[in-house]
Design goal:
The chain has helices spanning 2-15, 19-39, 41-65, 72-108, 117-142, 147-172, 187-208, 216-240, 256-280, and strands at 176-178, 182-186. It is mainly alpha-helical and 281 residues long. The protein folds into two domains: 1-34 and 144-281, no CATH class; 40-143, no CATH class. The longest helix has 37 residues, at 72-108. The chain is globular, with a radius of gyration of 19 Å.
């Protein structure tokens, strides 16, 4: 047992986070997603909205630490509106709801006067696009009758990217990928992400989606790119605001945003890939 604890502590130190709690949280989230989609797909939309609202709370606090004040309540209302519109109106509903919410949020900032308006408006714009708008594509993935298969394939792809990039990076990582943004990320970890996400894509599209296996190759490569960039974007935000994690909600992961970072940029890519497949293959 002492040997196991020593190995676990060594991995935690090298990876920069606690391994066992991280695994427990990941399986719990996976079970919640599967239950929501299998029991009643509308529940998944609610789960997405709750996750986004928790993420908004974290980003509002992060901006507050940089002396930029944005309205948490207004962004929560916008999130609920975008989620409802997306579930009922599809991609058109998401686009129209965002087009309406965006100017309303900017207009609401006028009550604070001109001082700091640009910083507040910029932070508000980033938040609504980065969180409820991008997360709307998760709702779009779950909306059809095949929502369970679509989302679970997406989970396989993102999970393979994050999990195997993490393990390969911990075990073999020597060459930093972006040392100024995320020192723990390595080129070796990226190679691990590419190999295993492509394998996961082949398995997911063939056995879960019942599509041609080779579709998983380009989609897997695309998800590696978007998920890695999403992780780096969130890391850049944290470094710019001198934060280690966006929050402490999820043991082993940090905050909700630390879990959503790779998902947010990847969900539009997955939705687009499936739309292309549906139209041309």
């Amino acid at each position: 047992m002492s040997d196991f604890n020593s190995i676990n502590e060594a991995i935690n130190k090298r990876a920069g986070r606690k391994l066992l709690p991280s695994i427990g949280v990941s399986f719990s989230l996976l079970a919640l997603i599967w239950f929501a989609l299998a029991y009643q797909r509308e529940i998944f939309a609610v789960v997405v909205a709750v996750a986004v609202i928790l993420g908004i709370r974290e980003i509002v606090r992060a901006f507050g630490s940089a002396n930029i004040t944005i309205s948490y309540r207004s962004l929560v209302v916008a999130t609920l509106a975008l989620t409802y519109a997306t579930w009922n109106g599809g991609v058109a509903g998401l686009a129209i709801a965002t087009a309406i919410a965006f100017p309303i949020l900017l207009i609401s900032l006028l009550r604070h006067g001109p001082e700091g308006f640009v910083s507040r408006a910029t932070a508000t714009s980033l938040t609504i696009i980065y969180l409820p708008f991008l997360a709307g594509f998760l709702v779009l993935l779950a909306r059809p009758s095949t929502g369970l298969e679509r989302v679970m394939t997406f989970v396989i792809l993102v999970g393979c990217n994050d999990t195997f990039g993490y393990f390969v990076g911990v075990l073999f990582g020597k060459h930093p990928l972006a040392p100024k943004i995320s020192p723990k990320k390595s080129w070796e970890g990226l190679i691990g992400s590419i190999i295993f996400t492509v394998i996961g894509g082949i398995i997911g599209f063939h056995y879960v989606m019942n599509m041609h296996w080779w579709i998983g190759i380009p989609v897997g490569l695309m998800i590696v790119f978007t998920a890695t960039c999403g992780d780096l974007i969130e890391s850049a935000m944290k470094r710019d605001m001198s934060l280690k994690d966006m929050g402490t909600l999820l043991p082993g992961h940090g905050g909700m945003l630390d879990r959503l970072d790779s998902v947010l940029l990847s969900s539009p890519a997955m939705w687009l890939a499936l739309e292309i497949v549906k139209r041309y293959l």
